[in-house]
Amino acid sequence: MNSRWIALVLIGIIISLSGHDALTYPERFDRLPTWGGHSQIGGGALLDPAHRENRENRVDLCRHCFCIHLKAICDYKLNKTLSNEFNDKLLVPLNIKYIEVRLTAGTQFVMYENFFQDNQVNYFGVIGVGKDDQVEITSNAFSHNKGGFPNIEIRNVLRVFLREKFLTGADYKLLVEDVAQLSVFSNALQMTNLDCSLKRIKELNLMKNAFNPGVAKYGINLRIEDSNINQLGIFGVSMGKVSLLRCHIDMIMSNAFDVTSIKELIIEGCNIEVIESQALTNKLHSDKVAIVDTVIGTIEGQAISQSGITTMIMFGNTITKIRSNAIQIVAVSLFIRNNSMSHVEPNWLSVSQADQVEIANNRFQNYGRCELNIGSSNCSFRNNILQNPQSGSLNFTCRVHQVRVGTECSCNKSWLSELTDHDLESEILCQLAERDGNCFNATNTDVRRYVNEACASNVTRYCMGGQWVTKAASDQASDSGKLTIGMIALAIVILTLLLVTIVCLLAKNWGSGSGTAGGCQSADKCLIEEDIRDQLRQRAQELSGGSATRKGILKLINGRLSKKECNDRVFLILDNMPQKSQAIESLLLRHISQSHMEAMQV
Ligand SMILES: *[C@@H]1O[C@H](CO)[C@@H](O)[C@H](O)[C@H]1NC(C)=O
Ligand SMILES: *[C@@H]1O[C@H](CO)[C@@H](O)[C@H](O)[C@H]1NC(C)=O
Ligand SMILES: *[C@@H]1O[C@H](CO)[C@@H](O)[C@H](O)[C@H]1NC(C)=O
Ligand SMILES: *[C@@H]1O[C@H](CO)[C@@H](O)[C@H](O)[C@H]1NC(C)=O
Ligand SMILES: *[C@@H]1O[C@H](CO)[C@@H](O)[C@H](O)[C@H]1NC(C)=O
Ligand SMILES: *[C@@H]1O[C@H](CO)[C@@H](O)[C@H](O)[C@H]1NC(C)=O
Ligand SMILES: *[C@@H]1O[C@H](CO)[C@@H](O)[C@H](O)[C@H]1NC(C)=O
């Protein structure tokens, strides 16, 4: 029994001495080391003399802090003797795995290299009060700690400075949250693997190349949430997944993602003022870049330029301006859905050799043309609203389906041929004027249907009570279809003369007692409702004196016309109005539908 125990101890000593070289280098073990766990109590005895001496000159951390089991709790409010500086004057007992530092208002905490000495601390947390407190962690602060994959947390502190080479070595988990000002210096993060979360940082200052492990490996995952970033220009290396969630970013600078591979870049729910030229360039290689539910001010020209992005996603963003040549990508799947964009300059997007492109459910205010000459089987441009499309903006081979434009439907389709050379009549929806809405029971309809229904046989038709009516139809209905225009005119003149004569005679016979209109009452008389008459008069008087429309209307409302004459005159006015006035048109059509409908059902 005894001899076996002695033998084991001897073997242990031999093993530890032969492992001496390895111990002097920062070597990390698993979170719960199997043999390290047994040796920790007597660990001090196993160290080489230099280390032991070094340790002996130090003051045990537990003399100042509250230590229990594997934990040390250092509270500046309660432990008044504790120095603000964690350095080689303090000794962290080898059994301690967990250190929590609690700051008090005004604490300026600094941590230096050599605070740790062959420790295996898995958790190091600094919790502040957010009032005049500060944390600074300097170069190699953790390099003599060998706890596997240590967890470093800094919370609720006013200012935090993470100096150059703050993290070196292998694997870490870092969380900084609820901090007013966080500065991460250039080359601060030089470890191989890092899982980094930065949350609720009011002013986050990530200096250029803050992440710089110097190895081409997707070992760094970065997640920034609910923070304000002035300039994002940090990524000189390869990263794993980078997520920016609900952040406000003033500027994503030129070359922010240069010389970089990022496995996945997600920007979600953010507000970005400017994405500068060359922000994401051809040096960026990424499996997936997604910009989602983000408000963006301007995307500058060449912001996303020839990037090696496999899948690019833009969903639900609100973008004020996209400049010419802003997005130029090769060989990708590109999905642009549910975005709202105000000003999209010509050639804002250019995609070549894409496997799949889908641009759907977007709303564009001013839409500039772009190159989308991808085979129609791999490219779809559908359900988009282009309020004000520039000419030529649908002139591409990409398949177009159900695209709404702000142009008002009319029988003159010349605007459509300006948009595209392709036959898209049945895919492009124009905006129905209010007066035509009833006949379609919609606010939009495709150009082909409109032309078929509203512009049949080259005659403009009018929508009344949900039905289309034309002058030609009314002519036919009243059996005058065969008459020439000359004959109609002649008939009108004769009829008018006759009527005038009769009216005058009647008026004379009945005298003034029976009122003005009383004698003219007849089934064949044109009766214009008082309200329509007044409004028409008012509208006519707004027109210029010499205008034919004005004269026509005044004649119509002042003359005593037969139903037929009245009907013809109305359509004459409608067809010859030089600039269509919706108000006049609808008044005239209201009159027609009230008084003339039975004569001209189509
Ligand atoms: C440190 O603070 C703890 C309370 O967290 C207290 O129990 C302990 O006695 C203090 N130690 C010293 C040395 O002040
Ligand atoms: C687009 O927006 C609609 C409603 O606003 C929503 O139902 C749909 O899921 C969104 N689609 C995507 C891809 O975000
Ligand atoms: C269309 O996509 C398929 C696979 O998705 C791909 O094989 C083909 O090359 C693409 N066509 C073009 C013209 O890019
Ligand atoms: C459409 O594109 C073709 C070839 O690129 C060009 O010749 C034509 O003028 C364009 N038409 C319009 C309406 O932009
Ligand atoms: C159609 O509209 C265009 C401009 O919008 C105009 O130049 C052209 O003369 C119109 N054509 C007809 C037949 O009215
Ligand atoms: C008009 O459309 C609505 C819904 O789209 C429908 O409920 C209504 O019945 C339609 N009216 C007519 C007259 O077709
Ligand atoms: C419509 O007018 C065009 C010229 O303006 C003419 O070529 C065409 O034949 C007309 N169509 C019908 C149905 O009258």
Total helical elements:
13
Class from secondary-structure proportions: alpha/beta
Largest sheet geometry: 21 strands, mixed
What's the Cα radius of gyration?
A: 41 Å
Taken together, the total number of domains comes to: 4
Ions, cofactors and other bound molecules: 2-acetamido-2-deoxy-beta-D-glucopyranose
Helix content: 10-25%
Contiguous low-pLDDT stretches (5 residues minimum) are 8-46, 477-483, 511-521
Strand content: 25-35%
Mean pLDDT: 82
What does this structure look like?
With 602 residues, the protein is of the alpha/beta class. The protein folds into 4 domains: 29-134 and 142-157, no CATH class; 158-330, no CATH class; 358-458, no CATH class; 459-488 and 523-602, no CATH class. Helix content is 23%, strand content 34%. It has a 21-stranded mixed sheet that branches. Strands 14-16-18-20-22-25-28-30-32-33-34 form an 11-stranded mixed sheet. Strand 2 (66-68) and strand 3 form a beta hairpin. Helix 10 (530-542) runs antiparallel to helix 11, helix 11 runs antiparallel to helix 12 and helix 12 runs antiparallel to helix 13 (582-595). The structure holds 2-acetamido-2-deoxy-beta-D-glucopyranose (7 copies). One 2-acetamido-2-deoxy-beta-D-glucopyranose (NAG) is lined by residues 412, 414.
Quick take:
The protein is α/β, with parallel strands linked by helices and about 600 residues long. It is about 25% helix and about 35% strand.
Q: What's the structural blueprint in terms of helices and strands?
A:
Elements lengths: L1 H17 L1 H5 L11 H4 L9 H8 L2 E2 L5 E3 L2 E5 L9 E2 L3 E2 L6 E5 L5 E4 L11 E5 L6 E4 L13 E12 L4 E18 L4 E18 L13 E6 L2 E5 L6 E7 L2 E5 L8 E8 L2 E5 L9 E8 L2 E5 L4 E12 L2 E5 L4 E4 L2 E5 L2 E5 L4 E4 L3 E5 L2 E5 L11 E4 L2 E5 L9 E3 L1 E6 L5 H6 L8 E4 L2 H7 L3 E3 H8 L7 E3 L2 E3 L1 H7 L7 H26 L19 H13 L5 H11 L4 H14 L5 H14 L7
Parallel strand pairs: 1-5, 3-6, 4-7, 6-8, 7-9, 8-10, 9-10, 10-11, 11-12, 12-13, 13-15, 14-16, 15-17, 16-18, 17-19, 18-20, 19-21, 20-22, 21-23, 21-24, 22-25, 23-26, 24-27, 25-28, 27-29, 28-30, 29-31, 30-32, 32-33
Antiparallel strand pairs: 2-3, 33-34, 35-36
Helix pairs in contact: 10-11, 10-13, 11-12, 12-13
The protein binds 2-acetamido-2-deoxy-beta-D-glucopyranose (7 copies).
One 2-acetamido-2-deoxy-beta-D-glucopyranose (NAG) binds next to loops.
Protein name: GD17185
Keywords: Membrane, Signal, Transmembrane, Transmembrane helix
GO cellular component, one term: synapse
